Amino acid sequence: MESEFDVFDWLLIQPPYRAFNLGSEIKRAVKAILVCSSTYDAFCPRCGKMSTFKGLLSPTTEDQLLNEKFASKGFGVVPDFWGHTKFSKTIQCTRALHEIDFYFHVDDQTLYKVGQYPSQLEIAKGNFEHYLYVLDKLHLECLNKGLELATYGTGIGSYIYVRKVFEYLIELIHLKAKELPGWDEQKFLTSRFLDKTLMLHEHLPGYLKTNSKILQILGKSLQDLEEEQCLECFNDLKHSVFIMIEEMVLEKKINEAMSPETTKNSSTN
Ligand SMILES: [Zn+2]
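Above: inputs. Below: predicted complex with zinc ion.
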């Protein structure tokens, strides 16, 4: 039976130390994680490629499930089997049996993921290899550092790294835009960063253009940045960067496929 909890979101997507206050649902959530045997596609750092992961049941959990079953049959009442305060969960790559371990704490009806191995960053990093189509190595490293700092709840630091990547993308867009008729290069060069970004609005994802939070923070100087605001904007800015890179990768691949060289090569093969 599928769990009503999104177990793989807790395992693979959510950063460590985020608090999930589950109230009276806490024991059902602990059980859902421990008994989860469903599958999920994610990057396997050991395989170096995407794989399907499956939740494993530990021998202790299997015993608990059996005991719970017998107890409910015998006494008609299900005793408390899932009141853990610390527990771990393992998922396994079905391609080559590589494992990822996750560690959880429960504190007063609140669930915390307190650790995992391999790290969340190693798993997330894998999806960015194709970003080298657009980014140079330095900016790919900036993106990774920003994501890493965000998993530790570091607001300003994570924002600055991802903003560097954003500025790099804006410059790539600018280089193309300045070739278009009617472009005011002098105005661009003398504008502040937010105004430069707004001048390129036609080439930006709609998600970014309508996000007042991002536009507000892009207008701030380094000295005016606040930890909380940076943390609050981080996911939105990160998603804008992802969308921009994905669009540029796609455009580059299409241009490569359509180039006369490629057409010539494929017709002679
Ligand atoms: Zn693997």
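The pocket of zinc ion is lined by residues 44, 46-47, 51, 93, 95-96, 98 (CB under 6 Å).
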